[in-house]
Design goal:
47% helix; globular
Length: 261
């Protein structure tokens, strides 16, 4: 296959993508790549202003864009925004869920409200999104792509208080497999992308200590953190025609961390 044909295989012209958490460090890289490949992109997040501003920036790629305020923990909010986007564009072809919440606390000290908040944001919210978009994809009868952002913490414990976060992402991995099994007959693929540490402003602020990031890099076989564009590339692959027979999979974009555990 020629380089030109390989390049064209990633094109998403005419596809309508709904990206939740789309203006964050990883989400914005995903939106940029999807728009650059020709997809119309709806950017959703808690802040209407940030979503709208970033959607306006994306329009430079020459595709349609929308900015939406959405709270994944509120089922009514999910239902309304999905309905609005689907009505505006007469459907949704690609759902990318980047919404996530992290509370790091010792298991013995974790408050009930923190546990519930993480599970609601990372697992329950992922189901509400999948259900609302999936119903429309099934009704349309033309298939679709659903891609959730998981984490390396979904398959290995951590020493820094990942009880709720790791459990939510492990549950998300199984939800991906379950939905892939149920919805395959409708031509809908459901997959997950699981990054390790990614070089974003959020990670920089959370780490606080540059030495910590150096230790993380040293423990990674490839010797560095991921770039947001490298995670976005995995999402693009699952959204592209090249992945039409791949479903129920979790792709770890972690520089070899899970391979070495």
């Amino acid at each position: 296959m020629s380089e030109e044909r390989v390049r064209s295989a990633f094109r998403l012209d005419g596809r309508r993508a709904f990206v939740v958490g789309g203006y964050g460090g990883i989400g914005s890289a995903i939106c940029e790549l999807l728009a650059a490949e020709g997809a119309a992109v709806a950017v959703a997040g808690r802040s209407k202003e940030r979503a709208a501003d970033f959607a306006a920036e994306l329009s430079r790629h020459g595709t349609a864009t929308i900015g939406c305020a959405l709270d994944v923990t509120q089922r009514d909010s999910v239902a309304q925004v999905v309905a609005d986007v689907a009505q505006e564009w007469s459907g949704i072809d690609i759902l990318v869920n980047c919404a996530s919440m992290l509370v790091t606390e010792k298991a013995e000290d974790m408050a009930a409200e923190d546990w519930c908040a993480v599970i609601e944001a990372n697992l329950t919210g992922a189901f509400w999104l999948s259900q609302e978009v999936g119903r429309r994809m099934i009704a349309a009868g033309s298939g679709g792509r659903i891609i959730h952002l998981s984490s390396v913490r979904s398959m290995a414990g951590g020493r820094n208080g990942f009880a709720a976060y790791g459990s939510s992402k492990a549950g998300l991995n199984l939800l991906v497999k379950q939905l892939a099994t149920e919805w395959g007959r409708h031509g809908i693929t459901v997959n997950g992308v699981a990054p390790g540490f990614v070089q974003t402003e959020l990670v920089e602020r959370a780490a606080q200590d540059r030495r910590f990031l150096e230790i993380v890099a040293a423990r990674t076989p490839l010797g560095r953190l991921a770039e947001p564009t490298e995670v976005a590339a995995a999402v693009l692959f699952f959204a592209s025609p090249l992945a039409r027979f791949i479903t129920g999979q979790i792709l770890f974009v972690d520089g070899g961390v899970t391979a070495s555990q």
